[in-house]
Amino acid sequence: MILFLIQTFVIYLSLFSFSAFLKEKVINTRFYNLNIYETNLIVIIFLSYLPFFINFFLPINQVIIFSTFFIILGSTVYLINKKKLLKKYFFKSIIITFFTFIFLIYSYTSDDAASYHLPYSAIINQDKISFGLVNLHKRFGWTSISQYLESLFFIDFINPYLILSPKIFFYFIFLFNYFSFLRKESNFKNFPLSYCFCVQLIIILVMKFSNYHGWDNDMMPIQLSFFIIFLLLQVYEKRKDAKFIINNKKKYIFLFIILSIYLFTLKISYSLFALFFLFLIFFIKKYYKFREITLSNYLILLIPLFWLLKNFLISGCLIYPLEKTCFNTQWSASNNLNTISNVNYVSLELKAWSMGWIDQKEKVLPFLEYVKDYNWLKTWASKHLLYILSGLLKYICIILLFIIIIKFTKKNNYSKNNFLEYYLLFIKKNNFYFYIILSNFFFIIFWFINFPLLRYGFSYIYVFILLILNPIIYFYFKSINIKKVGNTLIAISLIFLTTKNIIRINKDAKKGTNFYQIEMFNNQISKEKINDNIYIYYSKKSVCFYSQAPCTHFASNKKRLRAEYIKSYKLYYESN
After folding, report:
1. Residue 242 sits in the same domain as residue 283
2. Dist. CA 35–CA 181, nearest whole Å
3. Cα 463 from chain centre
């Protein structure tokens, strides 16, 4: 355990060092004023797409991983002559390492991670891209770019558990960025709405993601979608400041493009946030011309095309399991209803489950009948709606408590009439702010009609609520010591994360799990020959974890499953 913590500390410090080097030597020569945390984010995105592109031609084996980290570790030399930065990043790396320990100790692996996140990362490490992987496991058709990021951190010759480190680093990139933003009093004056939004984001992030077990593939896109709105608010508040826009337009254009694309490859259900790019263009249109878009921005736009190509090679669909995007190929998900990856069936199944099909108590309707004519609404409301409302209520109660404390500790006259007058005036002066809210409301409607599961729409719901509450918080913040608010919130956040996990550790220690499990024992895997040169591994349990690849726990199509080589690429398909 101690060795693992030392190794994670070195990884975190190296990532900070690599980011600091790129910030000074590359990033800020092209995109003005990116802070270290925004640069950290660019590095994480780069380390996600690097194995993604390589995997079209090669497995992400230990040679590639070692070569990558040799370069990253080498960048720590850069900090030797930067003693102030070294001290700063050394301290932050210790904080992240501490939370890595309390996040993972006595934590148990989520079903999704054990079922297809870790197995897919194993495939990336052990083989280059294969045709028709959905014929082994339907969920391989909607994996995230985060699986490629994790595969690059599976440093087996040092410690395989380092595969867990990039998501934790990603989480603290945003938390530290918001902490830094709050500690600058001038930000409240220059970006009051962004500042209040930042306060709310910190509260949400420590409430929602205090338990690593629940992160799965949801934490990263939720963080990213919140951050896109955070950036948009900054531009909105400075839209009339010509100097600010001219000096920062390249930065915001670049960030919006790369973050929107990264969000698309993290979780497609949050892709609607990319439409806020249109608001950004509108806010800066007086000072920006499309011919100013650089070649690098155009090259970045190619990434979604390669992501769709990856989807096509794996499933025969550009977006699996959306039938209209599917093509008839040898490796396409079969039209046979008995197969595990049938596009129509899987699409219907996903929709029904997101609408609470499993929660039916009396008469159990089949998928097709359940999703028709809002037959699902009563069942969904009895559990999912209550769960959503309870979460919102907890958050709103915290904000109200915050406001009550401010109101009764200050002598200012916060009358009802003063507040209503202020809010109406705010609406009148900030039409486009409410257009942003209205847009997000339409996103919620789209989510509700199509896939009303909280994990698919968390950001839409909470951005809507946070933006509505923002002016209210600003009204009460105007008369208080902002510096104290920032420092107090930072301290409370770290104490809350620590306390919440200590309570969890005491509870989970009784369940017998010592540490977050990533690997499956070899004696729990069976090896099946498909042809002379291709093998598939089947889990004797219900999941595979990280193991020999490709591994699946679906054995119902074993007799129909076939495999062959197309040149040097493996192709999996089902016989009729």
Report:
1. yes
2. 10
3. 15
Backbone angles phi, psi at 325, to 5 degrees: -100, 5
Q: Write the burial class of residue 151 (CB in 10 Å: 0-12 exposed, 13-18 middle, 19+ buried).
A: buried
- Going by C-beta distance under 8 Å and a sequence separation of 6 or more, which residues neighbour residue 149? 44, 47, 48, 51, 166
Torsion of CA 386, 388, 393, 398, to 10 degrees: 150
Please report which helix (H) or strand (E) contains residue 536, including its range.
strand 535-539
Give the domain-ending residue among 354, 374, 394: 374
Q: How far apart are CA 291 and CA 199, in angstroms?
A: 37
Residue 244 lies in a domain: yes
Same domain, 276 and 354: no
In a domain, 446, yes or no: yes
- At 519, list the tokens: 């690997």
Domain boundaries, position 350? 307-374
Alpha-carbon span 267 to 259, nearest angstrom: 12
Q: Tell which phi-psi region holds residue 216, choosing left (phi > 0), alpha (psi between -120 and 50) or beta.
A: left
Residue bearing tokens 């380092």: 162
| Residue 312 located in a structural domain | yes
Tens of pLDDT along the chain (576 residues) come to 688 888 899 999 999 998 888 887 777 666 567 888 999 999 999 999 999 999 999 999 999 999 998 888 887 777 777 777 788 889 999 999 999 998 888 887 888 888 888 999 999 999 999 999 998 888 898 899 999 999 999 988 788 888 889 999 999 999 999 999 998 888 998 999 999 999 999 999 998 888 888 888 889 999 999 999 999 999 888 888 888 888 888 888 888 889 999 999 999 999 998 888 888 887 877 776 666 566 666 778 889 999 999 999 999 999 998 888 998 888 886 655 556 668 888 888 899 999 998 988 878 888 899 999 889 999 999 999 999 999 999 999 888 888 787 777 665 555 555 777 777 788 878 888 888 899 999 999 999 999 999 999 999 999 999 999 998 888 888 777 777 888 888 999 999 999 999 988 888 777 666 677 787 666 678 888 888 788 898 887 778 888 888 988 877 667 778 888 988 899 998 876
> If we measure between CA atoms, which residue out of 245, 251, 235, 280 comes closest to residue 27?
251
Identify the H or E element spanning 221. Answer: helix 219-237
Residues 393 and 469 in one domain: yes
Contact 52, 146 (CB under 8 A): no
**Domain count across the chain:** 3
Q: Are 118 and 518 in contact (CB under 8 A)?
A: yes
Q: Are 108 and 517 in contact (CB under 8 A)?
A: yes
Domain end, chosen from 374, 393, 411, is at 374
- Other Cβ atoms less than 10 A from the Cβ of 310: the count is 20
Residues 6 or more apart whose Cβ sits within 8 Å of residue 158: 7
Q: Residue 528 pairs with which residues in a beta bridge? A: 536
**Where does residue 142 rank: exposed (0-12), middle (13-18), buried (19+ CB within 10 A)?**
buried
Ordered alpha helix ranges (H), 431-453: 431-450
For the question of whether the overall pTM of this predicted structure is more than 0.85, the answer is yes
Does one domain contain both 363 and 381? no
Ramachandran area for residue 538 (φ above 0: left; ψ -120 to 50: alpha; else beta): beta
Question: What is the Cα–Cα distance from 148 to 194, expressed in whole angstroms?
Answer: 32
